[in-house]
Amino acid sequence: MRFASLFATAALLGAALLPAAHAADTTKTATPHGPFHHLAFRNLGPAVAGGRVTSVLGVAGDAALYYVGSAGGGVWKTTDGGSTWKPIFNHGPTQSIGALALAGNNPNWLWVGTGEANPRNDILNGDGVYFTPDGGKTWVDKGLHHAGQIGAIAVDADNPDTLFVCAAGDVWKRGPERGVFMSTDDGAHWRRCCTSTITPVAPTSPTSRATPRC
What we know:
By secondary structure, this protein is mainly β. It has one helix at 2-29, and strands at 53-59, 62-70, 75-78, 86-87, 97-103, 106-114, 129-132, 140-141, 150-155, 163-167, 179-183, 191-200, 208-213. The strands form three sheets. It has a five-stranded antiparallel sheet, with no helix packed on it. A four-stranded antiparallel sheet has the order 1-2-3-4, with no helix packed on it. A hairpin with a 7-residue loop joins strand 7 (129-132) and strand 8. The longest helix is centred in the N-terminal third of the chain and has 28 residues, at 2-29. The protein is flat and about 70 Å long.
């Protein structure tokens, strides 16, 4: 009788310990294995922060102040020679930047032309021209929303109300928004002052001839 009682107790203990042992074995066998178990995800880009840089603008008389425009990361500003950078175009309609220009020798009067002007297999569209009178704190919409990709901005050094904008328009086809636009009233009104006629050459050649009409 005593032997039977000991046997029953041992059987109960074994039954209680069996699930715990089974769970331990299951956890152990759940460890990843196979030819790819050692691989881990890593960041492939396109890059930290802004990606490709399309425009860099220094300021005369201030070696620590720079503005940078990027192909897909907006406009950045440094006041300590590049040690730190601050994004100043976060709320713009597009983060694709094609051109930067200062006006009136004032380091806070910054013009921004949106739309990277380097056509490639994929491209972010531009959405016009913008101006900040206070170094990026506030922005003013200056139009040319259909100008597509803007490759250059030139401001008259003697009269900052006069400026020129070079626009590619729709990079995939010809259109009226391709050419050079001029404003004499600080961007309130624009007129196209120069266009180009693209003449395709032989299919074997990667180049085309452009005949400007100004």
